[in-house]
Amino acid sequence: AALPGPAPADWVQAPLDPAVRAVLVGFDEHFSYAKLCQALRYLVRGGPDCLLVGTNRDHRLPLEGGAAIPGTGCLVKAVETAAQREAFIVGKPNRFMFDCVASEFDVDPKRTIMVGDRLDTDILMGNNCHLTTLLTLTGVTTLDEVRGHMDSDCPARNSLVPDYYVDSIADLLQVLGE
């Protein structure tokens, strides 16, 4: 929705739904200043009892040919900055999503592999959940980044190192066929 008038004093006059108890920030190709204003108003009105939830912190989404677009993390950061508080992230690398799946299904971490193309979300979540991790080099991560983390003395950087890597997920087809 558009802002309800030409001036900031008008923008805070739009009605708020009294039932809203949380602001969820996810991928939104129509994210706008008006939505940011409404999110802030709900969070200020509800105070700490109004949850601020983000789906993920991906800063870029890779496209073919090396191009990228801003990811959901950019939108989450905008709302966090306006609200002056941090969102609870339900997606990777937080283990919340894994714990939800594991509570519904018989998941054995020793027999589970996390496959992904990002160190800071996919691989970190896999390592946080004590899963075997496999990095595909078809996303935003390069092998040089992996080596840099591997050679570091920093535990936080070491937690970004995958157990295995492949150039492409298609490389697994040969292994799976054996």
Automatic annotation (TrEMBL):
<dbReference type="InterPro" id="IPR036412">
    <property type="entry name" value="HAD-like_sf"/>
</dbReference>
<keyword id="KW-0472">Membrane</keyword>
<dbReference type="InterPro" id="IPR023214">
    <property type="entry name" value="HAD_sf"/>
</dbReference>
<dbReference type="GO" id="GO:0043136">
    <property type="term" value="F:sn-glycerol 3-phosphatase activity"/>
</dbReference>
<keyword id="KW-0963">Cytoplasm</keyword>
<protein>
    <submittedName>
        <fullName>PGP phosphatase</fullName>
    </submittedName>
</protein>
<dbReference type="Pfam" id="PF13242">
    <property type="entry name" value="Hydrolase_like"/>
</dbReference>
<dbReference type="GO" id="GO:0005886">
    <property type="term" value="C:plasma membrane"/>
</dbReference>
<keyword id="KW-1003">Cell membrane</keyword>
<dbReference type="GO" id="GO:0005829">
    <property type="term" value="C:cytosol"/>
</dbReference>
